[in-house]
Amino acid sequence: MTRGVEPGSEEADELAERHRELFSNFFPLTRQMQVCLARMFEADPGFSSYYNGIGAGLATWFRQSVDESARQHGIDPDTATWE
C-alpha cells in the first residue's frame, strides 16, 4: 500500500492469496470467506484500528485488494457469504 500497489494488480492479488493460504493453515478459508474476513477487518473498530495503526488506510486497502482478487475468481464480493 505504501509503495502504491493498487488493489486488483498482480502484486496485490498475490498478497491476498498469501493471506488466504496463511489463514488456511488454521481453518479452511475459501475466497468468499476471505471477503467476509476482510470486510470485518475494515468494519470492526478493534480490527480496523489495529490495521490502520500499521498504516493509515490499510484496512480499506486490504479489503479492496481482497474484493478485486475475488472478482478475478468469479466471486461477487457484494454477495459473498461465510461458507
Protein architecture, described:
The model has no long low-confidence stretch (mean pLDDT 96). The chain has 83 residues and is an all-alpha fold. The radius of gyration is 12 Å and the shape is globular. α2 packs across α3. The relative contact order is 0.21. It has four helices and no strands.
By DSSP, the count of extended strands is 0
| Coarse structural class | mainly alpha
Oligomer description: single chain
| Count of individual helical segments | 4
Our measurement of the CA-to-CA distance between the termini, rounded to an integer number of angstroms, reads 29 Å
Q: SSE order in H/E notation?
A: HHHH
Q: What fraction of the residues are assigned to beta strands by DSSP?
A: under 5%
Radius of gyration in whole Å, from Cα?
12 Å
Runs with pLDDT <50, length 5+? none
Shape designation: globular
Mean pLDDT figure: 96
Q: Give the % helix.
A: 55-70%
How many strands, what sense, and barrel or not for the largest sheet? none
